[in-house]
Amino acid sequence: MKIIDLGVPMEAVPGQGQAVEVTHIPHEDGAAGMRQRFGCSKDDLPRGLGWAVDTLTLSTHAGTHVDAPWHYSPVSEGKKARTIDEMPLEWFYGDGVVLDMRHKPRGSAVTVDDLKAALKGIGYTLKPGDIVLIQTGADKYWGTPEYLEAGCGMTRESTLWLIGQGIRVMGTDAWGWDRPFWAIREEFQKTGDKSIIWGGHYAGIEKEYCHIEKLANLDKLPRPCGFKIACFPIKIVGGSAGWSRVVAILQ
After folding, report:
1. Which among 46, 170, 175, 244 would be 20 to 30 A from 91, CA to CA?
2. Same domain, yes or no, for 35 and 84?
């Protein structure tokens, strides 16, 4: 069995959209806490050192994470949208399929025809429970200011089409599921078409689904299908998203 890490590291990166603050408390400082807890002296601890701990301050949408229906709207399919802790775990393990959209121009929309063409190109028919990963190539910009504005993005129509094929979990290696904000803004300013604003996310109002954002390393997969994806989100009560260590499992 081979496991391929498909997530970005949880680290502080300027200009990535969601700030991550990480404080590392070293063993020397941990020793003081242990002396207080256990009533011991420094000489009672190996090398006089204690535990190392870390404190993080970050958004649930920082790093590789799974968005819950609650993130898109308080209502999904006519009832209260579920939060990340309410989603069934069965959704987050299944056969993985990578659809390569790296040929799409920066800021462009992934259409239904694009999805159909990609599936035809790899000779694959989607089935309920598959986990579909959209490869834009944006992850190569991780750690740079360009990352936030890189890659193409999904639309309401293409998202609903995937849901219609029985797909409940899908993901992207870009910063967000929709097109980059700058591309949506430019088109809206030209056309006034409000339906394009966050259309991929807002598809979750009509049909319940989850998506993964900030994936990475899809180019390290030896094939576009024929592997399992595990993407269980952290159980944050009432959360609009949960961080996930997304991996591909190949036999």
Report:
1. 175
2. no
Whether residues 223 and 110 fall in one domain: yes
Say if residues 97 and 129 touch (Cβ distance below 8 Å): no
142 Cβ contact list (under 8 Å, min separation 6): 8, 13, 216
Per-residue pLDDT of the chain (251 residues; tens, 9 = 90+): 999 999 999 888 777 777 788 899 999 999 999 999 999 999 999 999 999 999 999 999 999 999 999 999 999 999 999 999 999 999 999 999 999 999 999 999 999 999 999 999 999 999 999 999 999 999 999 989 899 999 999 999 999 999 999 999 999 999 999 999 999 999 999 999 999 999 999 999 999 999 999 999 999 999 999 999 999 999 999 999 999 999 999 98
Burial of 133 (0-12, 13-18, 19+ CB in 10 A): buried
Rounded CA separation 187/54 (Å): 43
Domain with 30 in it: 20-58
Contact 67, 244 (CB under 8 A): no
Residues 77 and 46 grouped into a single domain: no
Alpha helices in the chain (DSSP H): 27-38, 69-72, 112-122, 156-164, 181-191, 199-206
Indicate whether this model's pTM tops 0.85: yes
Residue 6: name the closest of 217, 226, 233 by CA. 217
Q: What is the CB neighbour count within 10 angstroms for residue 80? A: 13
Domain match, 199 and 96 both: yes
